[in-house]
């Protein structure tokens, strides 16, 4: 028996739209696996920013979507899960990679560690060690 | 978590900045430059011109970030203006120089407006582009920080899921569901089964997953949690459906649903084809619907072999379930729980301490709190204050909790290191919530609880558990139709659950106040609900689902046959089932209303008899928990303030009066006027829990839409508002809407730090938060609140009588009679009897407990002696019976929710068996209440009136239900019936009323003494024209209606006297003005046919033809000439003959 829907917290029209196909993401390192809404540098659901490379982006799952006359900004409505390593071109999550002008997976970054400025070398070494110990 | 607080501290910083720094601004050098000094203009940049230009979600949070950022730079002697805004372009993939800007994977692209602000700041200085650029760089850093936080949050969530004890079993579970029909998954609380299994199955490709829960609140909570984990909190893949509330769209793949609702879906879709997997959670709880569902699963597997069933349970009694599904070859997976080690101490010796407290407490029934205090003191000595960990004490009930709480507070007066918190379901929500708050450093919470925290409430941080080994359990006695709340030993399973509560967040200690031997003697499991509750609703539902014989249903543990038979009998009494257990139209309607059957019947009758609104209020009020807090009857002030709402008619009426009063407070209160007493304060002062009134309002609306759906009431007519009213309403709605949005932004109630001297009245403070229940109430009510007040309760006398009769129609045969000696006794010695259970007390919370005299027949209400009639029972027209909602046995049996009714009238309207003697001067109702009417013909008149009213009442109900005339039953008919009912209930007839014992019955009936009853077979039945009298073979006499047996009760000397007197007294019929000597029944018959001649006008009509099939008839006996139909002529001939005979 169905009784009137008494609490509609979400916009009804949105509920009835077919959700767009999602893109699978799998981190080569930690196997983090998620479905994202967008791959690229200009996600249509975000405003005022542009990514410097192509990345796997989902709409921020932890907050309500911004509304035209709401208070939530469109600028923060995203969550980048990861992107391709500039060197090996495999997919990595944000935890298993480092961004310095480009995304580098920790392994590739470690293999080239001396090329990086000293300020971030120790970070690369530390993270590499963490990955190795995890194995 | 700290968002709320951070914002606040930011605000105070801001204030300081403005006061101290602003004067310095004119001379502000680049080194000293702070964006905070130019907040106005940069804030504009931050917000842009509209929401799509706004750069951050929470500007206040950004300013806090900026404050810290600047402070950090300042500490390293850097000016904020010196930070780099953009990293240089480079050709190499790895830039060799270090620049923080290379660490960010996005660039900001604000609108042109934001980049070149044309306005000037406070001081008239323009802000140069460089500063804007620096500001935007900080914004970028902030956004980068925020996106990292979000990513961390996601990772943390995934890590949490991966660490759940159930996670390693994902593959095994998916494999089992794919390859088997039925899986039993056993895992303890906290293993993650309720949140994870549905996700595993969804990820494996099952997309029509239903998961049942025993509790509504769990459906909502789980749907929220699972959608959070599946990152679709703001979409609809995961939904829930509970009674009256649905969050489900066509995209919903996982649905959490209450057991009751899934069962209801079975009547529309008998194989539940809308689901591919059905998960039944918490089957170990063994509640009524869960058990029923297990049987249904067995049937489903036969009807739909491809369906997948997952049964989830705690790790108790798995054998019972696997044996039940032996034939289906259920696969079993066990997931070990995760508990820290718990040290167990049996301490039976503490239970019988030196009787030093015993002397103090006068009542030996009271629990001795001494052992609990000893253990608290031991914890104090043994465990240093710095070692955190709270104490949870399990007791059986409210009184026990009170006595331990009192003693613990006494103990703590010296120690000052405990925070004592009672916990039970009749506490207010606010007080219940306190158990989740933190104790200050160096202090421990001591939570004194019923078994509510055994499974349904989970409190973290418990290190010590004291288990009394006792609980109070509600059982149902089908023979007395009585609920029994009894203290008893818990089961082994419960004892283990209680112990487990100590090891959720760290190693713990459990003290059992009983011996190991006693533990081993405990029952293994708690008794299933099906053995403890009445079964009317379940059986009715089964029959309406097409399971006609409950006696054959595969219950995992079948209920007692007594309970089944008694429930079927009760359904017959409610006229929901026919004699041969078929659904009646009342039964059909009742099965659609998901409330207890007697409330359903009330609603049904209420909606038919145009008392919809007050009946809805009443049904809703009786269906939610009592609004009275335990302070309500202890605090004299509370009682005094409630006095004007008390009704002398009894508790149900008082309840709806209180509700109406509450609505009035709500109506007159203006949320913008802060000084007026609001409804929350109004409730608190009267010892009422406001939440219950909101629940009543909600339930009332839901019941109404339900009745509308079953087409028992007409569609709502549009609200008739004037244009002015509409515009006021629109403005109000807008304002309330803004309040609601503001509430959404408020952080949820956080765990707070408890105060050391937390006492009962401290949350009087209205912390300025929005009362969202009030806002929602107003939004949903709108202008209806006026109607609501008007219609909440019966206002006129007739309405009140109707309302009481409507309630009675659902409650009968739940009636009780006062003990004959009550009038001699004091308040505490008043007793009442029902047919099956003698000596019941009035519940102390009842109106009649204190006002017990209301139920007595007072001296001036006593009538004088009549004729030779002698009785030790008082003769009066004011006898009352008590109808009640339930009998509850605690220390003794109590009548709950009582209402008084005029005795004879009520019995004659509702009794199933009305047995009379020849003069209707002695009437026995339902074989236990005997009424004597010593005044000639008074009993007879009353019976005749009541049977006439019953006929009309039933006719209108069946007309309405069978929809023979649509909803077009004439209002005049209702008006007339209501008027006549009111007159009937108010009529004054003197009688005695006496309770009969089974032994008395033997001597009161003619029985099958083979007396000739043929003279009683009235060829012309004055009670019901179309009812052919038949002999009653058991009691003697004849049935003159379905319920009335005439002449089966033995005569007495006074009744024989009366018969003679009636016959000897000359009778002048007021209708035809003729004089006869007639027996009482002849008089009745005469009235029946004399009717048309009752008044002059009608008589005249006979002198003129009023319809074509009347013809002129000249009676040879009375010599009158009349226009009559053939039937009238026959009738006339008959009376005329009778009159002649009698007159001789
Ligand atoms: Zn990774
Ligand atoms: Zn790589």
From TrEMBL, chain A:
Residues 25-124 form the Cysteine-rich DPF motif domain. Pfam families: C6_DPF. It comes from the Eukaryota. Signal peptide: none annotated. Belongs to the CDPF1 family. This is Cysteine-rich DPF motif domain-containing protein 1.
From TrEMBL, chain B:
InterPro entries: DEAD-box_helicase_OB_fold (IPR011709), DEAD/DEAH_box_helicase_dom (IPR011545), DHX34_Znf-C2H2 (IPR056382), DNA/RNA_helicase_DEAH_CS (IPR002464), HA2_WH (IPR048333), Helicase-assoc_dom (IPR007502), Helicase_ATP-bd (IPR014001), Helicase_C-like (IPR001650). Residues 1-26 are annotated as: Disordered. The keyword ATP-binding applies. Residues 174-334 form the Helicase ATP-binding domain. Gene3D superfamilies: 1.20.120.1080, P-loop containing nucleotide triphosphate hydrolases. It is an enzyme of class 3 (hydrolase). GO terms for molecular function: ATP binding; hydrolase activity; RNA binding; RNA helicase activity. Its EC number is 3.6.4.13. Keywords: ATP-binding, Helicase, Hydrolase, Nucleotide-binding. This is RNA helicase. It comes from Polypedilum vanderplanki (Sleeping chironomid midge).
